[in-house]
Design brief:
268 residues, alpha/beta, 7 helices, 10 strands, globular
């Protein structure tokens, strides 16, 4: 119901198909009639069950199915192309959500994880656990956490820690696994996060494997017809100047080698 305020579990809907339909029905004609070049900008379209705004990515290489998935994005790009418009998307490269598969793998496997070096400031997991302060201090841990039939640890009906329900122990004020502990939100995380927000562990963007993952995800968007990007908190990245210089070089080379004509990368 549109009169109800949105929450993490109550969303007002809307999809990429819906925007495409508005393009085709002339909703944006007032812009296109006034401008020789025009487009629309969307905030992230990544899968992100735990965040309404999707700035907490659970993947950088997928489109959220609740927005229409890849098919919805292709439909929107097609509608805009027919109307002479372009599409700008938000790239969130500084961090992921805590339910991203890379971070989940560290929570599952500790120091044995292949993704241990993908994040900044992860503690020595042979000596300490990752401390994630997301519990409501006014409620017991048991009241806000559960393990479902697929052994996913669900917290506040919002965070889905896939496969982490095996070997977890519930205490009054915390939930503990082999390599992590969930504690109340008054504490600080012991890994590097954007603005100390525990939901946003920061990627080690100086790591060549992380760069490859992020660069390839942007190339996927270019393949689908996206013309330009808005860069989220670009100065917060690890070795940011070097990262963005390499990113631009990679994208320009990719666009030229694949003879992609609609991208705005080559215009500036």
């Amino acid at each position: 119901i549109w009169s109800c305020p949105p929450t993490s579990t109550l969303k007002h809907g809307g999809s990429l198909y819906g925007i495409a339909d508005k393009v085709r029905r002339g909703y944006f004609d007032w812009i296109s009639n006034e401008c020789s070049s025009w487009g629309i900008y969307l905030t992230p379209i990544y899968p992100s069950y735990s965040s309404y705004h999707k700035y907490w990515p659970e993947s950088h290489a997928l489109v959220d199915e609740e927005l229409g998935g890849f098919e919805g994005l292709i439909d929107l790009v097609g509608a805009l192309k027919e109307a002479g418009g372009k599409l700008m998307l938000d790239l969130v490269f500084n961090h992921t959500g805590i339910t991203h598969p890379f971070f989940l793998d560290i929570l599952k496997q500790g120091a044995k994880s292949d993704y241990l070096q993908f994040y900044r400031g992860i503690p020595d997991l042979d000596k300490a656990k990752i401390t994630i302060p997301i519990l409501d201090p006014s409620r017991s841990a048991r009241d806000q956490c559960e393990v479902d039939s697929s052994l996913n640890l669900i917290v506040q009906e919002r965070y889905v820690f896939a496969g982490l329900g095996c070997n977890v122990h519930f205490f009054e004020r915390s939930v503990e696994g082999n390599f992590f502990t969930l504690v109340d939100s008054s504490r600080k995380p012991n890994y590097e996060c954007w603005w100390d927000l525990p939901d946003l562990p920061e990627l080690a963007t100086s790591n060549p494997s992380v760069k490859s993952y992020l660069f390839n995800s942007a190339a996927l968007y270019i393949d689908l017809g996206i013309s330009s990007f808005r860069l989220d908190v670009p100065d917060y990245l690890d070795e940011a100047d070097e990262f963005w210089a390499e990113f631009r070089e990679y994208m320009s080379s990719y666009i030229l080698s694949n003879k992609i004509e609609d991208s705005l990368f080559l215009a500036s």
